[in-house]
Design goal:
The protein is α+β, with helices and mostly antiparallel strands. The protein has one domain. Helices cover about 45% and strands about 20% of the residues. The chain contains 3 helices and 2 strands, in the order E-H-E-H-H. The protein has a two-stranded parallel ribbon. The longest helix is centred in the C-terminal third of the chain and has 13 residues.
């Protein structure tokens, strides 16, 4: 994963069972940004839609 040089946004809910895996990816990808949504599980794009949209748009704008 260390060879990945593309800016990457990792999105996970605080209660998502896959969160440890996303944290590992964030720790091992130099260009990764981990975005954890409090109060969300596996579907932060549904559970926290306004915040999700705002954060992804900000990431894409750079």
């Amino acid at each position: 994963m260390a060879s990945v040089r593309t800016p990457t946004l990792l999105v996970v809910g605080a209660a998502d069972p896959y969160r440890p895996h996303m944290e590992w990816l964030a720790d091992n990808m130099p260009q990764a940004t981990l975005l954890v949504f409090e109060g969300a599980g596996h579907f932060p794009f549904i559970e926290r839609a306004p915040e999700f949209t705002r954060e992804v748009a900000a990431f894409l704008k750079g």
